[in-house]
């Protein structure tokens, strides 16, 4: 051991390989992360406290906090824009992978819906503002300003790799990111309070009474002590609750783009790493597909919408027809998830025969995408596992329990296989790449990365010595000769698959995002875990499940363009 | 945009820079991560379900699951050991940073305590095994076998970078890691049920009655329907509850080591990256310090133990003296945390004048350490913020509320500054390094990494062009000439600081780990949030806070050796 200590100094020469960049980035990032964590936890405390009416934290406190945060974020954004305009040398590089067009397009779309929501909210609160605190009207107005400024900011500078005032920029970006996450949390909490309120008012009789009172006061806390009687007020209230999902997605989209900007602060890009753009040229859209995927997807989409509307109508109606609505809902979901699982699986199988080079660029956007896909899926996993345990251990052995079990199992399988497919797709180079590979030296090196592990298990194929250290010869070896017609057929299949999955994910986003809650209509889990525990599980995990769908859609759009 | 698409193929040459290793590792890791996530979620569901007696999941189900997992893990470990013994070529490289001696030492220590706990558990259950299911006696026995096998396995092969059966090894390691995390979860849940049980039995009268019944049944579920009357049985029961903290730490230590092994699977190390060993040569221990840190730390340690015992005695006694006990407890903690904050701060100040080279090696162990320090601190942050909100918004304005507020604020400050100090220390090279730096070309390049950010803000110091791309000349520039006597004095200070912080962290680990719960004795938060919500917050967050202390101790020991 002591001789190893002696060897310590010897290895300072190889040290530079990692480069000083990483380290001073770490040092600079620490501060901003600490700031973000603390602000976020404070917001989290107030928001979660405000959700329980037993707790003496009122929604006005939460509104005040959010308004302050948004104003500060707006000030910083304006400062950033002014500064970058003033000194053009501030942004020497732009990350071509950051802020792809559809992400920014989605941001604008959701931003517009958020503005509409803010109008509704303002109208709702101002319809009885004499008995309201001013903050409740100030909050949506501030949010509107914040949304406009931030959307413009992200549209023009999502690709920036800024190189001035590094620490200040990091802190500013992290603070804006924190603001978006706080808005997301507030919206999610407000929506689940509303859900629980409507649910408990429909089951006003049974064991939920204690909670009902809580939720009712919390739910109506938005309306203060005044009641919302006028028709226009009702419209406003209904309207802004239906627009919540867009506000939620807006915050999350903005957060991901801000995170990538934060990662890119002070990043040094070689001019060659400008990367292939992922922008779909509109001409190529829907061309080069067999039309099977899009059409099948559209059919499922329309059927799904119909099922969703039937479900909502029947569940909100008298309880007798809830059973029937649930059966329809589950059957549709089982069919949809089953097809998606098979399709993703076939996509992965196609990749086993694909010989395109893997894309090895450092790419914060992709790393984040993969992390978010894997992480957001946990929410749905958790709900499914709780359902499985409830059904398997629980007593009822009826049709609904069986459907519920199949639904939960398929949900897990679908998430797993779709993640595998998307992640593998995101690491493929663009279609042109394979032509640039040199023919392989050994037969067993014409394999895709997924099989490269197997190399080491095969005695015939020792790990190539070039793999030690960064070797310019590396990936070319993993690439092999390609046959154009086959690949064309293959990329067509992949385009079909990605479009089909994309449409399915949209409909599976719409259902929970706009208020379908079979978790509560179906009594299996509620009876098994008790309402409060099950409500906590669903209200914490479901937002991630919903975000997963939206994020999968944007990733699948990228896959469609790449393949 | 389309022209960017055209440039896509052009940049395949630079692609290899990132190297194929990363990518095929990703592909190989995906499978094992998916396996781990799903097994862990299933275990999480059963364990959390078993904690609530309203839920029809019994602890026997949990025991059965854990026993099965441990047996499978043992089988895999034996298979791994046999295989590595069989073919010596399986482990071509060993990561010198992985499994440092004190980590393995701590593992053995905690493992022994876990074995004692298993003996107690076996005795406890076998004292009335006629009305027990056999699994309750089988479980501790299996755990003993598992602990022995796993400790041996980690002792001999924590440093391995294995290169055969990569996928199988990854899955096996991830499964063993999952098993440890499941054991940790089960222990934490069991302990908090026990805590809540003892708490509610002390406040049997008030609003906790509903919970009391829950907890009592859950708590005594360990005893099934038989009562534990005999003296020896009581001893066993008391004993194994006091040994839980060691079991918890054992699982976490094993998990971190397994994670590093997993990261090292298929890793290719240049022989030069064997790194400086972090092993403290026993002679150098306590030498080269001013003895101020150790002595002050020991005083605080002893005082803390006394305070802890007084607190436990008075709180468990009649409720009249709880107030007094809390005052003593808080005052000690405030003094301790205040000193720690100042000391960590001074440590960071010293680093501003330190000119040692930064250690730039790729080092999974250190990356994990930093991530765990930052992540585990979140638990304590959350508790503190909830306390702050409760005190600030809540009505009572007495001495205890003030102490509570000061305690919470200092807790946050202490975590922040200690993290900054530890993370900066871990990135320093060994003391010998600075002599290997070449004198700086420009005056403003003799700064530590924390100030390198400032370089770009100073007009006089443009970002050095060498920073573009990996430049062998990079870090040497960040190093400047050093003056030996000063540095000696500096490293002495750092050793004192790390030893002082180390001892403080040990005492701050002991208090909560062995059952000090001022969060419940002090009624501010309980009254503000209500018992069930506050119990959920504390029982979820506190285990991370406890783990943070233990992990900080091991990191500080490393800092002591490095400085």
UniProtKB/TrEMBL annotation, chains A, B:
<dbReference type="InterPro" id="IPR004878">
    <property type="entry name" value="Otopetrin"/>
</dbReference>
<dbReference type="Pfam" id="PF03189">
    <property type="entry name" value="Otopetrin"/>
</dbReference>
<dbReference type="GO" id="GO:0015252">
    <property type="term" value="F:proton channel activity"/>
</dbReference>
<keyword id="KW-0375">Hydrogen ion transport</keyword>
<keyword id="KW-0472">Membrane</keyword>
<feature type="region of interest" description="Disordered">
    <location>
        <begin position="1"/>
        <end position="20"/>
    </location>
</feature>
<feature type="transmembrane region" description="Helical">
    <location>
        <begin position="30"/>
        <end position="50"/>
    </location>
</feature>
<keyword id="KW-0407">Ion channel</keyword>
<feature type="transmembrane region" description="Helical">
    <location>
        <begin position="497"/>
        <end position="516"/>
    </location>
</feature>
<keyword id="KW-1133">Transmembrane helix</keyword>
<feature type="transmembrane region" description="Helical">
    <location>
        <begin position="101"/>
        <end position="117"/>
    </location>
</feature>
<feature type="transmembrane region" description="Helical">
    <location>
        <begin position="137"/>
        <end position="156"/>
    </location>
</feature>
<keyword id="KW-0813">Transport</keyword>
<keyword id="KW-0406">Ion transport</keyword>
<feature type="transmembrane region" description="Helical">
    <location>
        <begin position="62"/>
        <end position="81"/>
    </location>
</feature>
<feature type="transmembrane region" description="Helical">
    <location>
        <begin position="528"/>
        <end position="548"/>
    </location>
</feature>
<comment type="similarity">
    <text>Belongs to the otopetrin family.</text>
</comment>
<keyword id="KW-1003">Cell membrane</keyword>
<feature type="transmembrane region" description="Helical">
    <location>
        <begin position="371"/>
        <end position="393"/>
    </location>
</feature>
<protein>
    <submittedName>
        <fullName>Proton channel OTOP2 isoform X2</fullName>
    </submittedName>
</protein>
<feature type="transmembrane region" description="Helical">
    <location>
        <begin position="327"/>
        <end position="351"/>
    </location>
</feature>
<dbReference type="GO" id="GO:0005886">
    <property type="term" value="C:plasma membrane"/>
</dbReference>
<keyword id="KW-0812">Transmembrane</keyword>
<feature type="transmembrane region" description="Helical">
    <location>
        <begin position="290"/>
        <end position="311"/>
    </location>
</feature>
<feature type="transmembrane region" description="Helical">
    <location>
        <begin position="250"/>
        <end position="270"/>
    </location>
</feature>
């Amino acid at each position: 051991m002591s001789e190893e200590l002696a060897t310590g100094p010897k290895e300072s020469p190889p040290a530079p390989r990692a480069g000083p960049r990483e380290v001073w980035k770490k040092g600079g990032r620490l501060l901003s992360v600490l700031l973000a964590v603390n602000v976020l936890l404070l917001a989290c405390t107030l928001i979660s406290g405000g959700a329980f009416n037993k707790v003496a934290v009122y929604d006005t406190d939460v509104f005040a906090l959010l308004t302050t945060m948004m104003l500060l974020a707006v000030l910083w954004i304006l400062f950033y824009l002014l500064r970058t305009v003033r000194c053009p040398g501030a942004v020497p590089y732009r990350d071509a992978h950051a802020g792809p067009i559809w992400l920014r397009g989605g941001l604008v779309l959701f931003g517009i819906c958020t503005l509409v929501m803010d109008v509704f909210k303002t109208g709702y609160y101002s319809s009885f503002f004499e008995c309201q605190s001013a903050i409740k009207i100030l909050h949506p107005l501030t949010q509107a300003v914040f949304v406009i400024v931030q959307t413009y900011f992200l549209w023009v500078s999502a690709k920036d790799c800024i190189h001035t005032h590094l620490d200040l920029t990091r802190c500013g970006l992290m603070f804006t990111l924190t603001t978006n996450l706080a808005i997301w949390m507030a919206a999610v909490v407000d929506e689940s309070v509303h859900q629980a309120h409507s649910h408990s008012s429909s089951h006003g009789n049974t064991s939920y009474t204690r909670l009902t009172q809580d939720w009712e006061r919390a739910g109506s806390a938005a309306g203060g002590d005044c009641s919302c009687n006028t028709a226009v007020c009702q419209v406003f209230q209904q309207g802004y609750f239906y627009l919540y999902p867009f506000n939620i997605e807006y915050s999350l989209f903005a957060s991901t783009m801000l995170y990538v900007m934060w990662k890119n602060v002070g990043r040094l890009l070689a001019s060659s790493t400008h990367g292939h753009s992922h922008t779909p040229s509109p001409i190529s859209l829907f061309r080069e597909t067999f039309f099977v995927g899009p059409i099948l997807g559209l059919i499922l989409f329309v059927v799904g919408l119909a099922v969703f509307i039937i479900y909502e109508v029947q569940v909100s109606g008298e309880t007798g027809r809830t059973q029937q609505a649930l059966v329809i809902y589950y059957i549709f979901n089982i069919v949809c998830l089953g097809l998606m699982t098979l399709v993703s699986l076939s996509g992965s199988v196609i990749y086993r025969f694909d010989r395109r080079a893997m894309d090895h660029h450092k790419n914060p956007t992709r790393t984040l995408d993969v992390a978010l896909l894997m992480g957001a899926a946990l929410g749905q996993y958790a709900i499914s596992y709780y359902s499985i345990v409830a059904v398997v251990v629980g007593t009822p052995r009826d049709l609904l329990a069986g459907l519920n079990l199949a639904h939960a199992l398929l949900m897990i399988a679908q998430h797993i296989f779709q993640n595998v497919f998307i992640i593998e797709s995101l690491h493929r180079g663009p279609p042109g790449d394979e032509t640039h590979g040199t023919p392989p030296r050994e037969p067993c090196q014409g394999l895709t990365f997924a099989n490269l592990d197997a190399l080491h298990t095969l005695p015939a194929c020792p790990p190539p010595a070039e793999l030690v250290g960064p070797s310019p010869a590396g990936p070319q070896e993993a690439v092999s000769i390609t046959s154009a017609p086959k690949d064309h057929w293959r990329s067509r299949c992949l385009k079909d698959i990605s479009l089909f999955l994309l449409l399915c994910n949209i409909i599976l986003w719409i259902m929970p995002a706009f208020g379908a809650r079979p978790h509560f209509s179906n009594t299996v889990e509620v009876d098994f875990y008790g309402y409060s525990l099950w409500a906590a599980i669903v209200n914490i995990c479901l937002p991630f499940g919903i975000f997963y769908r939206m994020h999968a859609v944007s990733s699948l759009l990228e896959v469609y363009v790449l393949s």
